Amino acid sequence: MAITDSSTGQPSLAAQATGIEIAGTSPLKRRTVRPLPLLGKAVLWIVLIAFGLLFLYPFAWLLAASLKPRGEVFDNALIPHTLQPGNYAAVWDQLPLLSWLGNSLVIAVLAAGLVTLSSSLVAFGFAYFRFPGRKLLFGFVLATMMLPGAVTLVPQYLIWKNLGLIGTWIPLFGMNLFGSAFYIFLQRQFLLGLPRELFEAARIDGASYLGLFRRIVLPLSLPSFIIIFLFEFQASWNNLQGALIYLNSGSPSNFTVPLGISYAMTTFSPTNGGHGDYQYVMVASLLVTLPMLLLFAFGQRYFIEGIATQGRKG
Amino acid sequence: MTAAQAQGQVGMDPERLTLLQRRAKRFNRREATAGFLFISPWIVGFLVFTLGAMLYSLVISFTHYNLATGLVRPAGASNYANLLTDPDVALSLGNTLFYAVLAVPLEIVFALVLAMVLNRVGRGAGLFRTLFYLPKMTPAVATASVFLLLLNGNSGAINTALGFLGIQGPQWLIDPAWVKPSIVLMTLWGVSGTMVIFLAALKNVPKDLYEVAELDGAGPVRRFFSITVPMISPTIFFNVVVLTIAALQVFDQAYLLFWRDQGSSAPEASLFYGVYLFQEAFRTFNFGFAAAMAWLLFVIILLITLVQTRVAKRFVYYEAENS
After folding, report:
1. pTM beyond 0.90
2. Where are the domains of chain B?
């Protein structure tokens, strides 16, 4: 498997980290695309900018609405008639937003940290060690990727209930102790790109198997650790259904971000008995999106590489 | 020294080794043990939370499970029989299939168009790729809280924009015919994950093919269907499968737009299978029935994926060395 980042044409993160180019696997040499005629280029840019504006519009709308007074939130003006930046100060009294952000942060760090470590250990087990049944077991790993979550939803709830852990945060990250199929696949893919001699040499120098993991896998495969962490952090930050199942009956201050915003959408709804201060929902929505945008700003290439790897699974 | 090696030294005729012994010979015992230790977290998780959970779910599906009392009564196949008679199962299944048929092709086409435009641009593409990716980073709750208003039939921005074009926009969130298109619209806004996968595949199509085709006088449409589509067909297939599975399990958007507020009534057209299953399991705690529903979904997804794989065999082109 070629380890070139096909979306950017740069050497992939794995290849960069290891400084290893595997001979014979690099894809065909790419030539620069023949320049388009001027008209074609203009059309292309118009299409691109039009789509760009379309994609940006909801963000602009959200930002504008978050700065409006109650009566104007729904007026669709991208420049508020009355500017009310005080929403950003008031929202903290209106909603336990700080608790939600804190809760989600703790859960996301635990979920992402645990799954990164466990999946990488398992992936190392599959990539380096030779043991009977390895192919079959890895086949099971791949098969579980196809399993719809709904099938295990009810029994998993009952398992947590029997452990007396409903209402705690543990069901929201506990399963991450055991690795996750896609991440195991992704990490294994990276590790297979490392030459076996590297490990053998370290073994001869007396390194233990755990030592191999710490001294070779961890530093050389750091990019894939980061990819897994970022993906799971985002998934955890977004996990609405889990929070609905395991936290819904507790007090709002125990909620996570998705559950909290969902709760706020109902309580602050201008119809159906809500009291209508929807500008606070807008502020809160924007504030819980910011951490994700920051994550993307710092980790864009990891996200893109991770997604592209998903496509190569087929 | 391992047992297998020792046996070999004793001078046993290798031809007479049993299959098991010959197998053991291929592995270093220490290494194999360590390997099992490394994958043991996954084995435990698989046995308990996947395989165990699936068996548990199968058992539950043949019972009436009362959460409050913890009582379990055998139900025979009645939960499965109820799948056939409960009108909401048929309704939600119909809604979900309709949604998938509407959403998946649109997602594929839209993502592919965006990827092709980005692929053609060259300089500046990176900026737009980032821009297109932002919706994917936006939490579903934030997307829903905004689209709830954008899609408002009376004052929403979408209908206002349509009004400028002289089109009377529909009641997106109320009119049964427009409920699913509203969710499709939200999904399309976040289609960039699929786009990135397509973009990666497009970059891997050798440029020489296009040059040769152009010399032979093939126009852009011909080049698209004779080169691009076959060369990226494994990626198209992958995206179709993944998006179909996701569409059949749609939950977040439908819940947030329609079912969040238990006090108000939601349009029937928005009752998706995932939503109904969730309600049966965690609102009415009808676990036996919910488990049976989950198994039906599992079988449906399996069948659809199998059919897709069958169909794909005729159309997907795998480059011998590249896949």
Report:
1. no
2. 3-60, 82-315
